Amino acid sequence: MGGIDLTIVWAVIIAFAVFAYVVMDGFDLGIGILFPSFAVGDERDQAMNSIAPVWDGNETWLVMGGGGLLAAFPIAYAIILPATYPLMIAMLLGLVFRGVAFEFRWRDPRHRPLWDVAFTLGSVVAALSQGITLGAILQGIHVAGDAYAGGWLDWLSPFSLLTGVALVIGYALLGATWLVWKTEGQAQQHARRLSLGLGIATFAAMAAVSGATPFLAYDYWRRWFAMPGVLLTAQVPLLVMIAAVLFFWSLRRGGEKLPFLIALALFLLGFVGLAISMYPYVVPRAVTIWDAAAPPQSQLFMLVGAVVIVPVILIYTAWAYWVFRGKVGTQGYH
C-alpha cells in the first residue's frame, strides 16, 4: 500500500487492543481485588451483577492484543514471551481461577466463601502479573540475535514490583469508581469511600513509577527532560494533575459517572506516557517495531481481517454496555 506504513498501522491496532483490554477488563479485575472489602450478601452480589454481562467479553481484547503481536510482530512475541513466561503463566492461571470462581459462586452456594477467595486471588494475581510484565519490558530485556538471552527471573526487580503494585492499585480504583456509577445506597457509599482512598494511592503510585522510569536508562531521561521535547512531554504530568483535581472534586460533589471517566482518562495518560518512553521500540532499546515486523504482505493480509473484525467487536461491545446500562441491584439491572 503506497504511502502507508503498515508497521505503524499494526502498532496502533495492537496498542489500541491492549489499551481497550486494560480499561475494560481493568474495572472487573478491580472489583475482584476489592471483593473482600464488600459485605457478604447484597453488597457482593451487586458488585458481581455489575460486571456479569460484560466481564468475559472484555477479555476479547487480550486475545486480540496477544494474537496480533504474534502475527504482526513475531520477533517481539518471540522475545517478550520467553522473557516473561512465569508471569504469563501466572496471569492465565489467575484469569482461569477467576472465571471459574465467577460461575461457580452462583451454582455452588455451599462453597461460596471458597469461590469468593478464588475470585479475589485470581484477580490479584492476574493484575499483578500484568503490571510486573510492563515493568520488565520497560526496564529492558536482554536480546541477542533477535532472541531472548536472559535468565528465568530477569523480570524480577524493585521497579517491576513497583509497576505491578501500581497497576493493582489502578485497577482497584477503576473497580471502585465503576461501582460508584452502577450501584446505589450503602454499596455506593462504600464504593465512594474506597474511591477516595484509592484515588490518593493511584496518584502516588503514578508519581512513583513516573519518577523511577527516567532513571532506568538515559534514553528515557532524554525523552522526558531534554529540550525542546520537554515542552511537549510536560503536558502529560500537567494533565494528570488537572485530572486529580477534577477527580476529587467530582467525588465530593457526589458525581457518579465522572469519577469513573476520569479514572479511565488517567489510564489513557499513563498509556501516552508509556508510548513516549518506548516509541519506536517494541522491546526498549533493543528491537524497534520495524525490526520486529512481519513481511508487508502478511501485514496487509491480516489488515483486511482486522478492518472487518475490529468494528464488529466495537459495535457489539457498545451494544452490550448500552443494553445493560443503568443501576444494578442484587437481582440484576433496573
* pLDDT averaged over residues: 87
Tell me the number of strands.
2
What Rg is obtained from the alpha carbons, in whole angstroms? 20 Å
- Choose one word for the global shape: globular
Number of domains: 1
End-to-end separation in angstroms reads: 50 Å
Which stretches are poorly predicted, pLDDT < 50 over at least 5 residues? none
Helix content bin:
over 70%
Give the helices and strands as they follow along the chain.
HHHHHHHHHHHHHEEHH
Lateral arrangement of strands in the main beta sheet: 1-2
Instruction: Estimate what percentage of residues fall within beta strands.
Output: under 5%
Number of helices: 15
Major β-sheet, in short? 2 strands, antiparallel
- Content-based structural category: mainly alpha
Salient structural properties:
334 residues, mainly alpha, two-stranded antiparallel ribbon, 2 strands, globular
State the gist of this model:
This protein has a two-stranded antiparallel sheet with strand order 1-2. The protein contains 15 helices and two strands. Helix 1 (6-34) packs antiparallel against helix 7, helix 7 (112-139) packs across helix 8 and helix 8 packs antiparallel against helix 13 (258-278).
Q: What does the secondary structure layout of this molecule look like, with pairings?
A:
Elements (H helix, E strand, L loop, with lengths): L5 H29 L7 H10 L3 H4 L1 H13 L1 H10 L1 H23 L4 H28 L18 H25 L2 H28 L5 H8 L4 H4 L1 H18 L5 H21 L2 E3 L3 E2 H4 L3 H28 L11
Helix pairs in contact: 1-4, 1-7, 1-8, 4-5, 6-7, 7-8, 8-9, 8-13, 9-12, 9-13, 12-13
